[in-house]
Structure formats: C-alpha cells, structure tokens
Amino acid sequence: MKSKDGVEEAKVPLLEYSLSSFEGDDCELDLKTRVWIESKKLWHIVGPSIFSRITSYSMLVITQAFAGHLGDHELAAVSIASNVIVGLDFGLLLGMASALETLCGQAFGAKKCHMLGVYMQRSWIVLFLYCILILPLYLFTSPILKLLGQPPGVAELSGVLALWMLPLHFSFAFQFPLQRFLQSQLKMGVIAWVSLAALLVHVFVTWLFVYTLKLNVVGVAVTLNFSWWALVVGLLGYTVLGGCPLTWTGFPLKPFRICGSS
C-alpha cells in the first residue's frame, strides 16, 4: 500500500516474542510464569538501554581517571568541564530530543513509517540551531566559573577544555535523535553494540593521546570528541546503509517544510 505521498507503507511488527512453550490463555498461567514472561519482555528492551547508558557514563569516568594521573589541578578542571558544562548541555539537549519519542511513536502507530525519518531530520535541525544558541556556555566558561567562585587557575583551564569540547557539544544534536529514532523501532541491540564500540574507541584514543602522544590534559578532553562522534557515525551508518528500510527514505526536502501535511 502507498500513502498519498507515494511512500510505501507496510506493517512493521514492534516486537515478537515466542510463547510457543506455553499453552493456553495467559490467565491460565500461574503468577510466577507470567512474571517471568513479562520480565523477559521488559529486559529485552531495557537491558540494552541500560548497557548503552553505562557505556556513555563510563567514557566520562575514564576521562576523569586519566586526568587524575596528570595532577589534581587537571582533574579539577576536567571534572568541572565535563560534569558542569557538558552535563548541563547534555541534560538540556536530551530533554529536547525526548520529544521525538512521542512523534516517532505516533507515526509508527499510524503506519506512517516514512515520517520517522522526517521527524528525526527535523529534530537534527532544531537541536543544531539550539546548539548554536547555547554556545556562550562554552565560550564564556571561565568568566562564568569565576563568577561562581571557582579559583582563577581552575576556571581558566576549564574554559580552555570547554572550547576543545565543542565538537562533543554538537554531536549531541545528532546522536540523541538517532537514539530516539532507533528506540521507537525497538532496535535497542544496535544502540548497545555501537555504544560498546565507541567505548573501546574511547579507551584506545585516550591511552594514545595521554601516554603516547603526551598531549596532557587537552588530549584527555579531545578524546571525548572522538568517542561521541563514533557513536553518531555508527548509528547513522546503520540507519542509512539499510538498517531501517521502511523508516529511512533518504534526505528529502520535507524536513525543511514548516507548514504542510505530514
């Protein structure tokens, strides 16, 4: 069947669970069996999601651990830049990207699968523009921290590190919509595997920059750019190279339309 936009629509199963080992209606199963069945369904979704969040958090922990080997001053600067500046930025952009869950869920339920890709591209545009609006948070990190009472030396170094983390800042605009796009199709395993690959990249690059190239604290900050953009490249590669044939239809002009029907 084709929609009025000429895009092929098809039924896409959200999730299939094999219950062939159980016979009869669910109400005939005892409580223990029903809890076990529902737990398997739940962990099929939340397990990979928890794993991907742990790997993302581990990147920050590894970065701070390496910074701790360089000195207390460096550790303080990296901690402030990653936990305060990037942490605030992370929360703002993640909250905005979460709106995509509702849009993609509604489009999926309405069998308008092609709209998931359109909504995601619109989210990229909105979040990228928002990233530009909050650039002063990174550009004026040092004055802000001094105003909050941080020691001048730590504030200055944190400001330098924040500038080096600007690529990380813009990666959020693409990574969060990609994750919500795949989550709405229950492709949690893909997110988990890509997160694991990004974590391995982060460990290797951090070791290379700090101990081999001797880039010191700036090298520690730059490693986050590599790992988080590895997440973006991995998720985007899976999406555009055939992983989502019904929900990704390329780069149309439709995401740039402000008005008009979906």
From TrEMBL:
Pfam families, alphabetized: MatE
Domain of life: Eukaryota
Keywords: Membrane, Transmembrane, Transmembrane helix
InterPro entries associated with the record: MATE_fam (IPR002528)
Membrane spanning stretches: 124-145, 157-178, 190-211, 226-248
GO molecular function, one term: antiporter activity
GO cellular component: membrane
PANTHER family, per database record: MULTIDRUG RESISTANCE PROTEIN
Family recorded in the similarity comment: Belongs to the multi antimicrobial extrusion (MATE) (TC 2.A.66.1) family.
Protein name: Protein DETOXIFICATION 27-like
